[in-house]
Amino acid sequence: MCRLIKFKRTYLNSNPIEKYEDGAFLFLPSIVKIYLEYNKLMKCGCHLPAFVKYIKKVYNRTVAVSGTCQEGSGKRIPILDYSQCQNYSLFQRNLQCQTCSGIICNEVTSCPGTEPVCRFAISMNGAKLKTERSCSTYRKCVEAMRNNTLTCNKRTNGTSCTGCCVGHLCNKNDFIGWTKSLVFRLIFKKFNEYKIPAENISRAMEHDLSTVTGTFRVEDCGSNRNKIFAIYCTVFSEMTESQLRRNISQVLNKSQELLNLGVKKSHMKFLDESWTKSFAFRLILKSFNEYKKPAENISRAMEHEVLTVTGKFRVEYPGFKYW
After folding, report:
1. Entry's InterPro entries (predicted)?
2. What is the pLDDT, as a whole number, of residue 25?
3. Which of 38, 149, 222, 258 is deepest in the core (most CB within 10 A)?
4. Hey, where are the domains in the chain?
5. Ordered DSSP codes for 100-148
């Protein structure tokens, strides 16, 4: 994202590009030249002509675009000559964004203003990794993104990174890839012998994990004799799963909080990875704007179909209009 902000030229010649999505070039505020020659399958669209006009009007800078596109009639014309866009807007009216902080984020806001965008930001305060989702305006968000070159280069205390996108709930996930989420499951053997509420153990582990770089949430997953706790982690993408597992293990093995509760280290063990694994698959649905079905309906239909597959499945629509 830091480098994209500085992009002045992008070369997309001789690619099998059929179309470009709304918002595809919106967050390239320094761009001066876009090369799109020899994309014989590319259909004309409204985003590029509108983007070029906006940059000229707001920033008084000319963006040159080379290449042709195909109109509905089949005729090929220069990309910026496409004029069937009278009601087109670069910015989505009544744009919905997630607006909250932390791992769990269920708040949604319809963003006001004429140039709304969704914002995703991360920052570090000591070892604590904070994520924040909010509404913003295009110009404010672009300026914040420019600061990434100064504040988003290192993964240390004071790090601050901002990304922007357009499309309903597009900031639901870290669409840039600064962070990743992992889940570890910890089993407490002979838990029914303890007289400690599971909530107390969850809070003790969260307290200890506050010294590990990232954000952590611990939940009791039920069970009787052998209690299982799920540790939900959000960490920088550079962190490997094995290294994070070691970090968590070292902290919990030295935990004074758990010792004060009377927890025996020998009763505490990570579930063997051979028991369960977590995967994430991403499925792209081409020409989605041609469908007249809500994304939520498609997600639920897929979840219904995979009920016949052994395992637990969840389908989410993260949005697709960004950068």
Report:
1. LRR_dom_sf
2. 93
3. 258
4. 2-81, 96-165, 180-270
5. EESS----EEE--SSSEEEEEEEEEETTEEEEEEEEEEHHHHHHHHHTH
